[in-house]
Specification:
The complex is a heterodimer. By secondary structure, chain A is an alpha/beta fold. Chain A contains eleven helices and 14 strands. Chain A has two domains: 2-227, Rossmann fold, CATH 3.40.50.300; 233-295, Alpha-Beta Plaits, CATH 3.30.70. Chain A has a six-stranded mixed β-sheet with strand order 6-7-8-3-9-10, with helices on both faces. In chain A, helix 3 (100-111) packs across helix 4. The radius of gyration of chain A is 23 Å and the shape is elongated. Chain B contains twelve helices and four strands. In chain B, helix 1 (2-13) crosses helix 7 (133-168) and helix 6 runs antiparallel to helix 9. Chain B is mainly α. In chain B, a hairpin with a 2-residue loop joins strand 3 (274-278) and strand 4. Chain B folds into two domains: 2-26 and 86-312; 41-82, no CATH class. Classes of the chains: A alpha/beta, B mainly alpha. Chain A binds chain B through residues 47, 50-54, 67, 73, 75-76, 78-79, 81-83, 87, 89-98, 102, 105-107, 109-112, 152-153, and chain B through 2-4, 6-7, 10-11, 14-17, 119, 123-135, 137, 312, 314-316.
Chain lengths: 318, 316
């Protein structure tokens, strides 16, 4: 089941389309890595999903029911769906003069939770703040504030978490703890998560699906396996007859992924061995013009996707 | 909405500034009562007379006259009962002069309301609340209710502490007003404070700025703007008589009517009765009715702004 499905989601600020015809699909149980440059529209998309910002047009379907459709919403249905979402968007919304416990209690009461005190204790323990529950939030370190922010998102036992830069301000140990906690919540409670983060190596360890946004548009959605397949080392091959070589390589290496690049080059990714490809190319009896091994990490991969997406958007605008 | 109300009450009683504002109100009432007691004391009267007698620029005749007054005062002093100077007109005029007239209660409640409402936006806590369309309606409705409760709390606090403080300093009242009149006076005083607070709430929700909201609270609720409007209306009334009744449509105008005490609210004739202009013409009405109409109008305007404009604004 789709937990989030957006279609043609658009938000215009002062004539500028910050989010532009955005389509997103998040399935139940996903840890959805939401990747994009600063200002690409990630936070605005999350705010629209959580009802903090109203879309200019487009639809958002949450938990299988359309809650917002071009601004028209069934009020009570929308309210019910939003109760199932926990958010940590931009800064954690803490009340600085209240203690961690009181912050959680304030939200627990606002949600009308039964046994709010017990739930507050559980949440404090879950986010590792049980020993500092009585300390005022303004005296917390950035990492502790992030954890309390996550606690506020979790206290209503949500089915969906929207987390915007949850690793911000965390030291390496804090980052690892946060990542482990998120994994545990997903595995033990089946909480679906949308996580936007610039810390791609952390995202790489937990995300099961990815969505790449550029200039307010979804560039591509893919599974973690697809990213791994496409993102690893690749080969760049150029022959005198690229079309023929591509057909022969596809036949010889059915597990690998091939992309015909502009200028006649062929990019080979996925399951292949460099030596085997070289042998095969010799066997094809084609003059080999280029044979380069390309090393690429996750960051390069996403930057390429985002810039490709941006290029596509600019081309479309021209 | 009840859940939001519980949450806000929980937050309010755990805020240090709530207790600071409450203590400020209590201390202010005690301080005013103490000051009034001192002004009403024979010692203060003696001091004034002595100062008058010692003034250097008095002529010889004036000095002799002042000295004679002083001697006479000294003779009377032993006979003067301490409480003679400590008699106030009524409990409602005492309340009006202690916390209503001059804007003390208006400023205190308005600043607290501004701080409390702006905190949701400043801290981003509002992002933790359900802000669907139905959620927003509930949010703004609940905030108006909590503002009404805060106004009632601060009014009750000031009323109780001022009565206790004045009583402990030995003050008595000349006129015993009926319970109904006192209740109506308190209700109208609360409505005036609520009207101020509703306007402040709208400024908070429109500006989302704590500084702007506090500045508005101080300027408007200290009666500065209201007094200006009243003066302006009197000036314009010279050319356009219809403006004469504009003063009755300000919150300050209502407060100045409340200053005359609970009994004056029911005046059907005499100086207290109001000749107000309405769309259907001029009418002579009792002041309480005019205060109710004027303050309710501000509350309605604020509610319309909250639900028609503020609710539709994006939360973050």
């Amino acid at each position: 089941m789709h937990i989030i499905q957006t279609r043609g989601l658009t938000r215009v600020y002062g004539g500028r389309r910050v989010v532009d015809g955005f389509d997103m699909n998040v399935c139940e149980g996903d840890i959805y890595g939401f990747v994009g440059k600063n200002g690409a529209g990630k936070s605005t998309v999350m705010k629209m999903i959580d009802g903090l910002v109203e879309p200019t047009s487009g639809s958002i379907s949450l938990f299988g029911a359309t809650s917002v459709d071009g601004g028209a919403e069934a009020p009570e249905e929308g309210a019910r769906q939003l109760r199932r979402i926990g958010v940590l968007i931009e800064a954690p919304g803490l009340l600085p003069n209240l203690s961690a416990k009181d912050n959680l209690m304030a939200k627990a009461l606002a949600l009308g939770l039964v046994d709010a005190k017990v739930r507050v204790r559980e949440t404090l323990r879950m986010v590792g703040l049980d020993s500092v529950g009585k300390k005022r939030a303004k005296k917390f370190s950035q990492g502790m504030k992030q954890r309390l922010g996550l606690g506020l998102a979790l206290i209503g036992s949500p089915d969906l978490l929207l987390l915007d830069e949850p690793f911000n301000g965390l030291d390496p140990e804090g980052t690892r703890d946060m990542r482990t906690l998120l994994e545990r919540l997903n595995a033990n409670f089946g909480i679906t998560m949308v996580i936007s983060s610039h810390v791609l190596d952390q995202l790489d360890r937990i995300a099961t699906r990815y969505g790449v946004i550029a200039h307010g548009r979804m560039v591509r959605e893919m599974t973690a396996d697809e990213v791994q397949a496409e993102c690893g080392d690749s080969l760049l091959v150029r022959t005198a007859d690229p079309a023929r070589s591509l057909a022969q390589l596809e036949r010889a290496f059915p597990q690998a992924a091939f992309t015909a690049l502009p200028g006649g080059a062929i990019q080979i990714r996925g399951a292949f061995e460099t030596g085997a490809v070289a042998d095969a190319l010799h066997g094809f009896d084609e003059p080999l013009l280029e044979f380069t091994e390309v090393k690429r990490d996750l960051e390069d991969y996403f930057v390429e996707l985002m810039e490709g997406g941006a290029h596509d958007v600019e081309s479309a605008q021209i | 909405m009840l859940n939001l109300l519980k949450s806000d009450l929980y937050r309010i009683v755990r805020r240090a500034d709530f207790w600071v504002f409450s203590a400020l109100c209590a201390l202010m009432m005690v301080a005013v009562a103490g000051m009034m007691a001192y002004f009403a004391s024979p010692e203060f009267s003696m001091m004034v007379h002595e100062n008058l007698a010692n003034q250097a620029d008095l002529t010889v005749e004036e000095r002799v006259e002042a000295q004679a007054e002083l001697d006479e005062a000294r003779q009377d002093m032993a006979e003067v009962e301490l409480l003679n100077g400590k008699e106030m007109h009524s409990v409602t005029t005492m309340w009006a002069n202690t916390y209503l007239n001059g804007g003390f209660l208006g400023i205190v409640t308005a600043i607290f309301v501004a701080l409390f409402l702006a905190r949701d936006f400043k801290s981003g806590f509002i992002k933790n609340l359900n802000m669907s369309r139905a959620g927003r309606v509930r949010y703004y409705a609940e905030k108006l209710v909590i503002v009404a409760l805060l106004d009632a709390f601060f009014l009750a606090l000031c009323s109780v502490f001022s009565v206790a403080a004045f009583a402990s300093f030995g003050f008595t009242f000349q006129v015993a007003e009926s319970a109904g009149a006192v209740a109506l006076w308190l209700f109208l005083a609360w409505l005036a404070m609520f009207a101020y607070s509703c306007l402040v709430a709208c400024v908070v929700w429109l500006s989302r700025s704590e500084a702007v909201s506090i500045a508005f609270a101080v300027i408007v609720c200290s009666c500065v703007v209201g007094a200006f409007l009243v003066q302006l209306s009197l000036l314009l009334a010279n050319a356009f008589p219809v403006f004469e009744s504009l003063q009755y449509w300000t919150i300050v105008g209502g407060i100045s009517m409340l200053t005359q005490g609970a009994d004056a609210l029911f005046a059907q004739e005499g100086a207290a009765v109001i000749a107000a202009h309405y769309p259907w013409g001029e009418a002579l009405i009792a002041p309480w009715w005019q205060i109710l109409l004027a303050d309710a109008l501000y509350v309605i305007i604020a509610c319309v702004l909250a639900f028609a404009v503020c609710r539709k604004r994006n939360v973050a």
